[in-house]
Write a structure and sequence with these properties.
451 residues; alpha/beta; seven-stranded mixed sheet; five-stranded mixed sheet; 12 strands; binds NADPH dihydro-nicotinamide-adenine-dinucleotide phosphate; binds (2Z)-2-iminopentanedioic acid
Length: 451
């Protein structure tokens, strides 16, 4: 084999920028990973020779398609849909579907890239993918959402399957949307098979899947704290978002004796000094079911709470911070404010919620910082269990799945420590997650040769 011509890190990143013009989120995600991988493979010629990182940073394929649907006023609407199949070295492509007006190819490429490392970290046989559309389910009737989902799957069905690519939910895609998509897949193919995860409990869903991401993010936080002989009990937490991940993260913080001070949506955040307890969390879940209410309504319902229009919650002093809404929702200034206010740990329920500048600030301050690809992996891990259950035509109960989730999150934490411990008492969880996630995928790719 020819001796490879190594490019240095800067040249590599410039190449990524050049090949992906205007795709800022994708370049950001690759940049964050590349630094750590370069350090790791410095003395490992086989990874350089086989151009492994270069190959992982180029999706296997990006499918883009038109989605036409008719709204309730009989207007014909046209949206764009995508599925990014990033890498299937260690298992079928796996990752959620996002319906949100901010969805672009760049956003889905960054998510599919991150998913490749995340899924590897779970230890389960899943490759990385992500899909979605620039469709906004908010304010749409059930019938409109159904027609959109059916049209979306009418194109996507030919690219997915239980052994090729298994989508799930993400922003704007919950049980309702998964039901419509699964029904349409079954109708077109005539097959009942585990092609989507996050399904309803009546038709093959996994008992623990709705809670898994939020609970998992708190279990990861619990593990980080335990590593320093500390716990969540008695601590205050600031959470962003008020959807699936945020509400379940809040629920688990409360179960472990913490006090949740904030929740948010794209309109602003609410601050409740009395703490957002289980009853209030249930009220938020009901409010947000199928994209209906706005978080501002919380302040009308519960006296003592205030609503902060157009603001994010990071200025509220806390011990723990859990960004659970969307990418780049916590910037360098906000990270600094959190650190100045004494935050001790950050666990990301969302994918890439912290900007690169914010990540550097957390690292420099040496706080515990669990990046999304490790901290929110509980969701896809339980999706992996749902795939197993569907393939075997069996069903596991809530308790058993809960124990498996706890163990999976412990395992992910251990892998991060193995590769991220700097030997001086600080664990760089980003580095740990990047290297552990990379190694398994890279070794599988080496085994396959050039394919
Ligand atoms: P939901 O649709 O249930 O909730 C999303 C929440 O984030 C809503 O409160 C929404 O507010 C808010 N949000 C969305 N976009 C923006 C924006 N541009 N600015 C501010 N707030 C915004 O989604 P999930 O809870 O499922 O997903 C949240 C995050 O968790 C995402 O980053 C997702 O990728 C990640 N994730 C999800 C997993 C899952 O299993 N669902 C698994 C792993 C990660 P509004 O209603 O105003 O839009
Ligand atoms: O970002 C994610 O990990 C998800 N949206 C969940 C993916 C999945 O396949 O369950």
């Amino acid at each position: 084999m020819a001796v490879s011509d190594h490019v240095d890190l800067d040249t590599f990143i410039k190449g990524v920028e050049k090949r992906n013009p205007g795709q800022e989120e994708f370049v950001q995600a690759v940049t964050e990973v590349a630094q750590d991988i370069y350090d790791f493979i410095e003395d490992k010629e086989e990874y350089h020779e086989a151009q492994i990182l270069r190959r992982i940073a180029e999706p296997d394929r990006v499918v883009s398609f038109r989605v036409c649907w008719e709204d309730d006023n009989h207007n014909i609407r046209v949206q764009r849909g995508w599925r990014v199949q990033n890498n299937n070295a260690i298992g079928p492509y796996k990752g959620g579907i996002r319906f949100h007006p901010s969805v672009t190819e760049s956003v889905l490429k960054f998510l599919a890239f991150e998913q490749t490392f995340k899924n590897s970290l779970t230890g389960l046989p899943m490759g990385g993918g992500k899909g979605g559309a620039n469709f906004n389910p908010r304010g749409k009737s059930d019938a409109e959402v159904m027609r959109f989902c059916q049209s979306f799957i009418t194109e996507l069905y030919r690219h997915i399957g239980p052994d090729t690519d298994v989508p799930a939910g993400d922003i704007g895609v919950g049980a309702r949307e998964i039901g419509y998509m699964f029904g349409q897949y079954k109708r077109i193919t005539g097959r009942w098979e585990g092609v989507l995860t996050g399904k309803g409990m009546e038709y093959g869903g996994s008992q623990m899947r709705p809670e898994a991401t939020g609970y998992g993010a708190v279990y990861f936080l619990e593990n980080m704290l335990k590593h320093k002989d500390d716990s969540i009990d008695g601590k205050t937490a600031v959470i962003s978002g008020s959807g699936n991940v945020a509400t379940h993260a809040a629920e688990q913080i409360v179960k472990q004796g913490g006090k949740v001070l904030t929740m948010s949506d794209s309109g602003g955040f609410i601050h409740d000094e009395d703490g957002i307890d289980q009853e209030k969390i249930d009220w938020i879940k009901d409010l947000k079911n199928n994209q209906r209410g706005r978080i501002s309504e919380y302040a009308d319902e519960f006296s003592g709470a205030s609503y902060h229009e157009g603001e994010r919650p990071w200025g509220v002093a806390c011990d723990l911070a859990l960004p659970c809404a969307t990418q780049n929702e916590l910037n360098g200034d906000e990270a600094k404010t959190l650190v100045d206010n004494g935050v001790i740990a950050v666990s990301e329920g969302a994918n890439m919620p912290t900007t690169l500048e914010g990540v550097h600030i957390f690292h420099d301050a040496k706080i515990m910082y669990g990046p999304g690809k490790a901290a929110n992996a509980g969701g896809v891990a339980v999706s992996g269990l749902e795939m197993s259950q569907n393939a075997e035509r069996i069903s596991w109960n809530h308790e058993r799945l809960g124990n498996m989730l706890t163990e999976l999150m412990e395992g992910i934490h251990e892998k991060c420590v193995e590769y991220g411990d700097d030997g001086n008492g600080y664990v760089d969880y980003v580095k740990g997650a990047n290297i552990a996630g990379f190694k398994k995928v890279a070794d599988a790719m080496l085994a396959y040769g050039v394919v």
